[in-house]
Amino acid sequence: MRDKTYHEMYDLLTQSMSLNHKMIDKIEELRTENAVLYKQIEECRDTLRTLISKDFESLNDNKRLFSFC
């Protein structure tokens, strides 16, 4: 009886450790994906800032062009 309990506990411990390792692997995978997404977001922000800046410059140029009207 005692051996059975020991083996059951050992099996549960082994399963738990296996699940923990799987969770750690998944967390690392998600961290990597998160880093990639964060970089893409930063690139999008930079692109938007550039476009907004160019639009603003263009608007100012048009105002100057037609300021004589």
Tell me what the structure shows:
The chain is an all-alpha fold. The chain has 1 helix and no strands. The chain has one helix at residues 2-65. The protein is rod-shaped.
Brief summary of the model shown:
This protein is mostly helical.
- Summed over residues and divided by their number, the pLDDT gives a mean of 88
Order of helices and strands: H
Estimated radius of gyration: 30 Å
Largest sheet: none
Number of distinct helices: 1
Low-confidence stretches: none
Structural class: mainly alpha
Task: Name the quaternary structure.
Answer: single chain
Strand portion: under 5%
Shape: rod-shaped
> Alpha-carbon distance between the termini?
100 Å
Helix content: over 70%
Instruction: Work out the number of β strands.
Output: 0
Key structural traits:
mainly alpha, 69 residues, single chain
Draw up the topology in text.
Layout: H1 2-65
